[in-house]
Specification:
Strand content: under 5%
Low-confidence stretches: none
Mean pLDDT: 84
Largest sheet: none
Length: 71
């Protein structure tokens, strides 16, 4: 029972809002499918990659917002 909606008649901001609401409804009401093994492997690979590029700041490091915005 799929019906077509002519979203081209809406302004861009309304189209974006409609898309966001659609995503919300899909997450809320669509059945959750079990993740396949390849999905889990891809997620693990992603986090291994992030971890390999991560670094630690020194213990005495302080963040100075004014220094950040100096030119």
């Amino acid at each position: 029972m799929a019906k077509a909606i002519e979203i081209d008649r809406l302004p861009e901001s309304a189209r974006n809002e409609l898309y966001d609401f659609y995503e919300f409804l899909v997450k809320k009401y669509a059945p959750v499918l079990s993740k396949s093994r390849s999905d889990r492997e891809a997620k693990e690979h992603f986090f291994r990659n992030v971890t390999s590029h991560a670094f630690s700041l020194p213990a005495d490091y302080t963040f100075d917002r004014n220094e950040l915005h100096e030119r």
